[in-house]
From TrEMBL:
SUPFAM superfamilies in UniProt: Cysteine proteinases
Superkingdom per UniProt: Eukaryota
Composition bias, Polar residues: 36-46
PANTHER family reported in the protein's UniProt record: PEPTIDE N-GLYCANASE PNGASE -RELATED, PEPTIDE-N(4)-(N-ACETYL-BETA-GLUCOSAMINYL)ASPARAGINE AMIDASE
Gene Ontology terms describing biological process: glycoprotein catabolic process
Keyword Amino-acid biosynthesis found: no
Region named Disordered: 1-23, 36-64
Name of the featured protein: Uncharacterized protein
Iron listed as a keyword: no
GO molecular function: metal ion binding; peptide-N4-(N-acetyl-beta-glucosaminyl)asparagine amidase activity
Alphabetic keyword roster: Metal-binding, Zinc
A cellular-component GO term for this protein: cytosol
Family: Belongs to the transglutaminase-like superfamily. PNGase family.
Species whose genome carries this gene: Aureobasidium melanogenum (Aureobasidium pullulans var. melanogenum)
Amino acid sequence: MASRTPNSRGRRPAVPEGLNETWAKDLTDQFRRTLSTKRMNALTRNTTQQQQQSPNAPPSYSSLRNIPLVATAPSDRNSLRFRSMLLSLSNTPCRWENPGLLDEALRSIPLERIYDQAQEESDLFLAEAASLGPNTKPAWGYQDCVVRALMKWFKRHFFQWINNPKCGACHAPTIAVGMAAPLPDEQARGANRVEIYQCSNAQCQAHERFPRYSDAFVLLQTRRGRVGEWANCFSM
């Protein structure tokens, strides 16, 4: 231990006398080229061996990602749950194609107001782009501004985001207490589950039901919800 030099304690070794930093850089580049060549040769040997063993077989992707060569129906619980969710989400846009639903949605939207705001914002983007040079494009086009104006109106004036609904009796904040089965009327309107909340006011303590609707037509009437209801109604 006592015979170690200072360089043996993690310090960078000194460059041999008469050599400069270029020597170290060249040595590093040579090492990298050698290592790269060695790896490429190893990959080439593995590929050649696989082709010799089964020249007509496809690459073994299953050995890399556990993907089966032949598609099979899901059987485990997580796969079945994902399949059910995927089918449900795939069917949701199909329900938006109801002409009556689309007419009701158009009647709810102040189109003239949306288009005026979009045109005003689009003009601002065009003026900003013109001030930056003749070849500068605006950050947002007119159609983009229409979507932006629609989103602002939907978020600020049409739809109400609900975390915990207020008490219907005294309008005080509520606390989640559990779940309940939907009532016949709630189930008929597409509620799959109902959240139960209790008023935080000690003098009230009334219970508030919060049905989670998935029908876009119902959401046009209730105009409140969280992520699922928000996305369902706005995307429609």
